[in-house]
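Section 3.1: Structural characterization of target chains.
Under the original work plan, the team committed to producing a structural model for every single-chain target entering the pipeline before any wet-lab resources were allocated. The record below documents one such target. The sequence was received from the expression subgroup and is listed exactly as submitted; it comprises 303 residues.
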Amino acid sequence: MPIRSMTGFAQVRSQIAVAANDSSEQLAFTLSLKSVNHRYLDLQMRMPSDTDGLEMKLRRLLKERVARGHVDLTLSIDRGTVGAMQLNKDMVAGYVRAFRDAAKEFAVVPAEPDLNAILRMPGALTGAVGVMDGAFENAVLARAEEAIVRLNEMREEEGRGMEHELRRRMAALSSVTDEVAQLRSAVSRAYLEKVQSRMNELIAGKADADRILQEAAMLAERSDIEEELVRLKTHIRHFLGLLDTGGEVGKKLDFLLQELNREANTLLSKTSGVAGEGLRITELGLAMKSEIEKAREQIQNIE
């Protein structure tokens, strides 16, 4: 599966024949999907009332096809002239009886129920009869499949551009790493001179042997950056391998970039204070961090 961005949009429209007033008429609906980046899969559903069963099926469908992202699903129904608004007589009558019983029971000031308020209550007015039946659900689910395909196609298209950019960043990072490797021997010589100078100072100051050994060990530990260079190259190869594999790799790529940044920081720390080629390595280390940060900006929107 190719790499996907978490940003995309898709919309489908359709209509279905429904039963209304002893006849069959067309009911139109529109289903929209909008996706942006998110750490996990976060689904937001905006649907008509009385569609809980359909909402659960749509959620399940999205979880099967989308791994990460904040996804807004909006389902709107254009009822048109289908089954013009009808009064739910039993429900309205129940509200009226309850209102009058309460007024009588609690002896409040005599009043009549407000019809406008009653008609705004959920279920008091209904649209097309039989809209939320199995046929309607099946029609919506079928078009939802199509919308998800379109959404993922858009996400994949954007993902291809992001993959190209990431490969370019890794190529630049690899080039910088190679240049640092070429300067490694010069830095080691500079550190050796620094160690010798420090040892002479300690000996002249008549420092004890343990102090001299401790200083030597500390400087020796900082004198070589080979380990950091090896890790940088290994992480870059792993990063490119994940791009080749594709699929849901956003979190893994983000982790690798954190490791790359850690190695770049260590390299900068080891070469700080070294004259000559050490200054050039500092420049290259900062260039590494710049490339890593630019790559991280892209990774934040990869599924």
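Residues 134-204 form the longest helix (71 residues).
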